Amino acid sequence: MHVGIVGAGISGLYTALLLRREGHQVTIFEAADRIGGRIYTFRFSPQAKGEDIYFEAGAMRVPRSSLHTKVFDLIRYLNTHSSVEDRIDLIPYILDHDSNCSFFQNEKGSLQEARWAKKADLPEKYWDKTPQELLGSIVLPWLTLLRKDFDSGFQKLLKYDEFSFRAYLRLVAEWPHEVIEFVELFCSQTNQYDLSFTEIIMQNLDFDTKHWVTVKHGMSRVTQSAAQLVGLKNIRLNSRVDRIGYLGNGQIELSATGLHRTFSGTYDAVVIATPPNAVHSIVDRPKWSFMKEQSIRGAHYEPLYKIGLHFRTRFWERTSIKPCFGGQSTTDLRIRWIVYPSNDLGSNGSGVLLLYSWMSDASKWAGLTREQRIQNCLHDLSLYYADDPDVDVYEQYIEASDMLWAADSAGGDAMFLPGQFSRFYEVAKKREGNILFAGEHLSKHHTWVSFGLPYLDLDDIS
C-alpha cells in the first residue's frame, strides 16, 4: 500500500515510521524547506570552537509523566534503529529554579511572595495568597479527579466546557475581576483565561509534573532522526499540497507545487498531518460535512512568539543577584516570560536567552519590524536587569532570531475556545473515506509533542 502524508512535522513523520515498519510505501509532502514543523531548533554562529549555540523556536520540553510515555517510546525506537550519529540523548529540563523572579510594576521578587496581591490592590482577603496558591485552589480538585479516573473526570469537566475559564472564576468561584486578572498575569498570558474551562484544566494537568527533560543539542534531533529512518528520498520539501481528490476506484489523487515543478500522484490513502489552518489553505480539496468543515475553519489556534537573544556570556548565571540556572521568570513587561536555558549549565562562552509569549501578548509583536522587536526585547530585558550594575544587555548582545508562529501555516498551538471540545473533538478526527487526520489538535492534550504522535488507527488505513 502507498500512503501519501501531508506534513513533515512530528505527526507526519510518526505516521510514516509506523507505516514503513509495517512494510508500506510512504511519500511525505512538506510545504516548508525544512523537516520538523513546530519542532524547530535554531542554531546561532558559535563564538568559539566547540560551542553549540541554539534555542528552541518551537517545542522545548517534555514532562516525565505517564501521560507522555509515547514520546519516550518513540525516542527508544529511534535510538534502537538509527545510526550512532542520530542518537537522541535526554537531559534534565529545569522548569523552575529557586532564583527565578517575578517582575511586577517595576519591582522584582519571588513568585511565591504574598506581597504581590497587596501591591496589585486586591481586596484584603486575598493578600495572604500567592498567585499560584489562588490558581491551585481552583484547579487542584479537578486534577485530582482526572488522575483518579481520567475518562470519568473528563466527562465531568465537559459539563463546564461552554464556560471560559474566566467565566468559571467569575460566576462559579465568584472571584472579583481584578483577582482573575492578577492570577492570569502571573500564572499565564494575557486573555488566556478566555479559553475554555476544559482547555485550561487540561493544560494545568500536563504542567503539574515534577520532572522534565529536553533533548541534548536540540529537539530537532528527534525529527531529524525520524526523517532519516523514514528515508529522505520519501520526503518532498518545498512541496505545498494544492489539490486532494477522491478517485472512483477508492484511491486518492494528490498534487503539490514545488519550487520549479508540480507533482501529482495517486495513493491508496492519505493522512493529513497538519493543523487545520494548513488544511484550510489547500486550494482544491473535498468538502466534508458541515461540522467537519466548521472544525477546520473554527478550531482555535493561538499565536506564539519566541525570540532567542544570543549574548557574549551567560550573564544570568554569573550575576551576583539571584543567578538563574534554568527555569523562567515572569514579568508584566512586553517580553512576558524569560526562559533560561537548561543546556550547558555553568559553561563558559556565549549563551542564549529565550523570551516567550503567546495569546494577546504574542499578537502584539506581529505589527513590528524585526528590528523593532529586537530593540523592544532588549529594552525590556534591560529593565528587568536594571538592579544589577554589572549587567549591560546591550553590550552583551550579539544577534537574535525570532519566530512569529502566527505567520507560519501552522498558526501556533491549538487552544480551544468555550464549547469547542464538545463541538469539534469527535468530528475533527473522523476519517473521510481513505483520507485520515493526525495531529495534537485531535487529542485532549493540546500543544504537546507526545499528543502530536498520531491519534489514528493504522488498521483503519490498512
TrEMBL record:
An example Gene Ontology molecular-function term: L-amino-acid oxidase activity
Entry-linked InterPro entries: Amino_oxidase, FAD/NAD-bd_sf, Flavin_monoamine_oxidase
Gene3D superfamilies named among the record's database cross-references: 3.90.660.10, FAD/NAD(P)-binding domain (3.50.50.60), Guanine Nucleotide Dissociation Inhibitor, domain 1 (1.10.405.10)
Positions of the Amine oxidase domain: 10-447
Segments crossing the lipid bilayer: none
GO BP: amino acid catabolic process
Domain of life: Eukaryota
PANTHER family: AMINE OXIDASE, FLAVIN MONOAMINE OXIDASE
Name of the protein this chain belongs to: FAD/NAD(P)-binding domain-containing protein
Organism: Polychaeton citri CBS 116435
